[in-house]
């Protein structure tokens, strides 16, 4: 069931030059939302980020409508970053009259502009996937997730929407130094229609159980083989993280 390198192609999705060229070429096409639209993710946002005044960071924003939809839903403080200066320029001009939306050109692997514990929510819809298809993928993932952990407030959430199943994402997410409690959801791709002979009654809003090793149970089967995985990683407080780190050291 593993999905990671096998889903990559020959493009270097971690390279700013690739994205600049792509946004220039597709400028007349308008917007594009990767994976899921906000309407499908709204229940998770409302559950884990109930305070509309919470500062939210959207990474790899591109030219998606996601943040605009969130503002229309009531969220008031959304910072958007992207590695592409072209995308940031387009979106900054488009939303210059909306104070709830801000845009900056930034590499998610180095977000030193932001101070520690400055966001309640970090929304990643395909950005980690892009880095995992680039060069030095393990290092890029480590740099990114370390930065996410640094800038999240205690009690804040990193919401990762990805094609990567637990066998290829949990080894990166489940590191004790990040201090995250991870809950997994799985939702079908947009437009998926359940087969007539499907008897499953599972709600996509129900968390999916993981084994002690952070894997899906052996008897778990996907309704849609191209489903998206939503990892909700909640940041623990400093005391909890210290205890986990201490236990990890003693177990070595």
What are its keywords?
252 residues; alpha/beta; seven-stranded mixed β-sheet; 8 helices
Describe this structure in words.
With 252 residues, the protein is an alpha/beta fold. It has a seven-stranded mixed beta sheet. The longest helix has 15 residues. Helix 4 links the parallel strand 2 and strand 3. The protein is globular. Helix content is 32%, strand content 19%.
Specify the overall morphology: globular
The mean pLDDT is 90
Order of strands, main sheet, comes to: 3-2-1-4-5-7-6
Termini, distance in Å?
A: 30 Å
Give the amount of beta strand, in percent: 15-25%
Structural class call reads: alpha/beta
Helix content bin: 25-40%
The rounded Rg comes to 18 Å
Please mark out the parts with pLDDT under 50 across 5 or more consecutive residues, or reply none. Answer: none
Largest sheet: 7 strands, mixed
Tally of separate helices: 8
């Amino acid at each position: 069931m593993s999905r990671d390198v096998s889903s990559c192609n020959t493009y270097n999705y971690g390279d700013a030059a690739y994205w600049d060229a792509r946004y220039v070429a597709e400028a007349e096409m308008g917007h594009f939302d990767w994976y899921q639209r906000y309407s499908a993710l709204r229940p998770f946002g409302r559950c884990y980020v109930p305070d509309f005044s919470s500062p939210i960071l959207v990474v790899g924003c591109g030219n998606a409508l996601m943040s605009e939809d969130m503002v229309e839903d009531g969220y008031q403080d959304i910072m958007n970053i992207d590695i592409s200066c072209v995308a940031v320029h387009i979106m900054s001009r488009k939303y210059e009259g909306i104070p709830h939306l801000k845009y900056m050109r930034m590499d998610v692997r180095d977000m030193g502009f932001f101070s520690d514990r400055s966001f309640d929510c970090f929304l990643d819809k395909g950005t980690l996937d892009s880095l995992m298809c680039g060069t030095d993928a393990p290092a890029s993932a480590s740099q990114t997730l370390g930065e996410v952990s640094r800038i999240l407030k205690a009690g804040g959430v990193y919401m990762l929407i990805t094609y990567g199943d637990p066998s290829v994402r949990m080894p990166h997410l489940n590191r004790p130094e990040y201090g995250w409690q991870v809950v997994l959801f799985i939702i079908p791709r947009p437009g998926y229609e359940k087969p007539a002979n499907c008897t499953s009654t599972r709600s996509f809003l129900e968390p999916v159980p993981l084994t002690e090793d952070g894997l899906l149970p052996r008897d778990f089967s996907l309704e849609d083989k191209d489903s998206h995985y939503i990892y909700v990683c909640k940041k623990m407080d400093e005391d909890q993280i210290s205890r986990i780190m201490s236990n990890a050291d003693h177990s070595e």
